[in-house]
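Why should sequence recovery work at all? Because a backbone constrains its sequence more than one might expect. Tight turns favour small or flexible residues, buried strands favour hydrophobic ones, and helices have their own preferences. The token representation captures these environments compactly. In the example below, the structure is given first.
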């Protein structure tokens, strides 16, 4: 299975949620970046080893000992971008573990930068947030295609 250990990181809020989950569950969790269908495009969180990882899955790295995978085809469609794991208000989608009371995990990246100034989407990094984590790609995802802008 391919690995690319420099392409995933987490906010302090996500790290705190992982610490709480590990304490409650008594062990590590794993993340799999969803590409759509039932789970939308949110990262799915499972007890470690619960989801079978295939040959087409790429290990982007580990966050506090918890692996983070993405399907290689989705990774290519998203431009092999760096991902930032964060949390947001609301329940988790699909079969994902919650990040806390009324919290779910979200993925942020420059691929999800908004093409219009002032557009506020919870899964999109602003340009200044992207610059803070060293992301400079100027594109966004519209459904399953990457569209460059400005």
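From this structural description, the recovered sequence reads:
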């Amino acid at each position: 299975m391919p690995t690319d250990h420099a392409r995933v990181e987490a906010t302090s809020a996500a790290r705190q949620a992982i610490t709480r989950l590990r304490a409650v569950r008594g062990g590590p969790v794993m993340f799999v970046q969803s590409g759509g269908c039932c789970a939308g495009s949110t990262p799915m969180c499972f007890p470690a080893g619960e989801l079978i990882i295939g040959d087409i899955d790429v290990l982007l790295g580990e966050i506090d000992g918890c692996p983070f995978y993405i399907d290689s085809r989705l990774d290519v469609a998203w431009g092999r971008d760096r991902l930032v794991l964060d949390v947001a208000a609301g329940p988790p989608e699909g079969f994902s573990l919650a990040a806390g009371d009324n919290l779910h995990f979200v993925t942020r990246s420059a691929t999800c930068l908004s093409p219009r100034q002032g557009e506020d989407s919870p899964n999109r990094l602003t340009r200044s947030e992207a610059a803070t984590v060293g992301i400079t790609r100027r594109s966004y995802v519209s459904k399953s295609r990457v569209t460059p802008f400005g």
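A few observations help interpret the result. Residues 114-119, 130-150 have pLDDT under 50 and may be disordered.
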